[in-house]
Amino acid sequence: MKLKALLWIGAALVTVPFAGGCGYDCTLRGCFAGIEVALVPSVSSTYDVELVLDGVVDAFRCIKTEDGWSVRDWTEGVLWFGCDGFGFRLDATPETLGISVAAQDGSWTGSISESPDYRFYQPNGAKCDGAYGCDQAELTVPKG
């Protein structure tokens, strides 16, 4: 049997077959450990985010431009995987998390304080990944 690896190159998805002896098709998809944060309803203007991750404060600004969205003015070491009007991703897995969001034009504010419920995600399946995988959580910050 052949295994197939999926690779993203620009906007194109490329399949690369390679030999394997596991008896079924697998892929080599990776995954990100962290938190996907949804803003409900979506935000239509530049907004500021303040985070408290296990007691450590961090912040960043998600700026709406003519060309889309970008992150600016982040402080300490929390890595993020982008933002837009629908939310943002954090490259962190804290036990406790506080999030405050405020649009600079005053049209949107919201906050939560949570202990995220992480799920162990294996993008290629347990038969292909073995112990490989990542902890992921999804949170929603409601307007109000």
List keywords for this structure.
single chain, 144 residues, mainly beta, five-stranded mixed β-sheet, 1 helix, globular
Question: What is the arithmetic mean of pLDDT?
Answer: 80
Number of helices: 1
Could you tell me the strand content as a percent range? over 45%
Shape: globular
Provide a short characterization of the protein structure.
Helices cover 3% and strands 56% of the residues. It is an all-beta fold and 144 residues long.
Q: Can you offer a commentary on this structure?
A:
There is one protein chain. The chain contains 1 helix and 12 strands; from the N terminus they run E-E-E-E-E-E-E-E-E-E-E-H-E. It folds into 2 domains: 1-30, no CATH class; 32-142. Mean pLDDT is 80; it is low at 1-22. The protein has one helix at residues 126-129; strands at 2-9, 12-19, 34-40, 47-53, 56-65, 68-72, 79-84, 87-91, 97-103, 109-114, 119-121, 134-142. The protein is globular, with a radius of gyration of 18 Å. Strands 7-8-3-12-11 form a 5-stranded mixed beta sheet, with no helix packed on it. It has a 5-stranded antiparallel beta sheet with strand order 6-5-4-9-10, with no helix packed on it.
